[in-house]
Design brief:
Distance between the termini: 68 Å
Low-confidence stretches: 1-20
Shape: globular
Bound molecules: zinc ion
Number of domains: 1
Length: about 180
């Protein structure tokens, strides 16, 4: 009889979407489940980035409408372009973020922790500050790189095509039409 206590051991990760052991049929399960879990994570993260964009840019567009009514008059085509490019950018940001989030949860790829007791309390604000400093430095230098002619044409022209810029251009920064 196969059952509990008779030597049939379940993998420690049984029940999660990513079985670690490769047994009868589980290689097939793993090869299907890992890519679909990755795709799901990438999709979820892209949707989160898109929703964040819609909420923040929408709020700024609404505030602009209240403070400067008519400022965006006649810019409908430009705004449509800005929203389209921004949603494309949501996928460009969201897909790698989704892959890393999956790796954090399932492969321990990152140093992200969720239990305050894992590190001394001072580490929390210090790591947040270090993260902001590193991220801002990265953002500054990549933005400077994108203003080099070759990179500008390739990846940044669309962002500066918005003249006058509207709130919807916030993430409109992918490839230019060449
Ligand atoms: Zn720029």
């Amino acid at each position: 009889m196969r059952g509990l206590g008779t030597g049939t051991r379940l993998s420690p990760s049984f029940g999660s979407a990513f079985p670690q052991t490769v047994g009868c049929g589980s290689l097939l399960v793993m090869t299907i489940e890992v890519p679909s879990a990755l795709a799901l994570s990438a999709l979820a993260m892209s949707l989160i980035v898109a929703a964040r964009y819609a909420i923040s840019s929408g709020a700024f567009a609404l505030a602009t409408h209240r403070v400067r009514p008519g400022l965006y008059t006649g810019l409908n085509n430009q705004i449509r372009r800005e929203v389209g490019w921004s949603l494309a950018s949501a996928a460009i940001y969201g897909i790698p973020a989704g892959i890393v989030a999956w790796g954090w949860q399932n492969r321990g790829w990152t140093l992200i922790y969720t239990d305050f007791a894992d590190h001394p309390l001072w580490y929390l604000p210090a790591s947040l500050f270090a993260y902001l400093l590193l991220h801002d430095t990265w953002f500054y230098w990549t933005h400077r790189l994108f203003h080099q002619p070759r990179w500008f044409r390739l990846a940044h022209a669309v962002h500066h095509e918005s003249r006058p810029p509207t709130a919807w251009a916030a993430m409109s920064s992918t490839r230019s039409r060449q």
